[in-house]
Amino acid sequence: MTDRKTLQTALIHHDYEAPGGFGAFPPAIHHASTVLFENVAALRSGDWKDKSGYTYGLHGTPTTFTLEARLAAIEGGTHCLLAPSGLAAISMVDFALLKTGDDVLLPDNVYHPSRVLGNWLQESMGVSARYYDPLVGAGIAELIAPNTRLIWTEAPGSVSMEVPDLPAICAAAHARGVVVALDNTWSAGIALRAFDLGVDIVVQALTKYQSGGADVLMGAAITRDDVLHAKLSGSHMRLGLGVGADDAYLVMRGLPTLKLRFDAHDAAARRVAAWLKARPEIVRVLHPAFEDCPGHTTWKRDFTGAGGLFSVLFDARYSEARTDRFVDSLKLFRIGYSWGGPNSLAVPYRMAGIRRDWMDAGTLVRFNIGLEDPADLIADIERALSTLTD
Ligand SMILES: Cc1ncc(COP(=O)(O)O)c(C=O)c1O
């Protein structure tokens, strides 16, 4: 065979290689399903668990390894695995640690699809999923059964905003050899050092603050523990939880501004929440930095900041139809799920599956404060509030 190729083959096999030594700030975006090996011996020695090399696009590329390393560093962890959504990262943890006959404890205010997953594991896989009051603290010890393998926490719960006592829950769990996983999305890993408080696995929905653009879905499971990481890697591989290179790049692109954006969301949200607190229509501001919020003192002890997400209770004298009309009347705030992007959002919630006496005081509306000028957001709310009574 000569080196001469037909045009068809030459379109696929090309000789040019760009010179090395190219330097730029943005990381390269590596697209690959197939990863090439130098020879058969290299292929045979390939190990997808070892991030010192590459085996297949699903198991990592320089782009995804770089994002994983950066996320682990932000959170204070040593290992990170990406998943195509925050919920996929949650399922990676569940499938890594739970099997038939095991028990998992979840806070009753947990991110609702995580609860749906827990119920599904119970109905179809013979895992028992039980729910606890997130303010249970050290009392979680009484709920731990001999077959409890995993305790989920969420700090704070992303609708009722209750802040759990993580050190107390972790101490009780570890005394019984139980793993604690935290959905740390609200703090973006910026305002809570979860591993220092005893948490074993942190999950982030990178869809929110890390991406910052409301334009990409991704999740991550981060740990400091080699054994847990190996279990998570097995689950990641079995479930095929790869992420696209362009999406990984989009998330990476958000990281340099993550803290600046988070702090801006935080300052604006506290300003809007303080304004709402002074309004006669509002009976309770469920923002962890405010005293009204269950778990506020725990937030003060453990957190160094807050994000843009909080809820309020409208006085019970306003019917749900009225508060719905309030939300419909907002102009800058749009109606939609998620948070962490530049646009403000408002959603009325009926808290499925949880009961607290304080909820009787009124109807809950959750605000995600974006990056607009808070004065404009307050003016928008003030105008919409007039629809409650007219
Ligand atoms: C607290 C929390 N965790 C996890 C998720 C899941 O993230 P994703 O939408 O990327 O699946 C969400 C999404 O709304 C969330 O609010």
TrEMBL record:
Top EC class for this record: lyase
Catalytic activity: L,L-cystathionine + H2O = L-homocysteine + pyruvate + NH4(+)
EC number: 4.4.1.8
Keyword Hydrolase: no
GO biological process: L-cysteine catabolic process to pyruvate; transsulfuration
Cofactor section: pyridoxal 5'-phosphate
One function term, GO molecular function aspect: pyridoxal phosphate binding
Keyword list, A-Z: Lyase, Pyridoxal phosphate
Modified residues (N6-(pyridoxal phosphate)lysine): 208
Family annotation (NCBIfam families): cysta_beta_ly_B (TIGR01324), PRK07050.1 (NF005456)
Family matches, as PANTHER family: CYSTATHIONINE BETA-LYASE-RELATED
Record family assignment: Belongs to the trans-sulfuration enzymes family.
Official protein name in the record: Cystathionine beta-lyase
Species this chain originates from: Pseudoduganella plicata
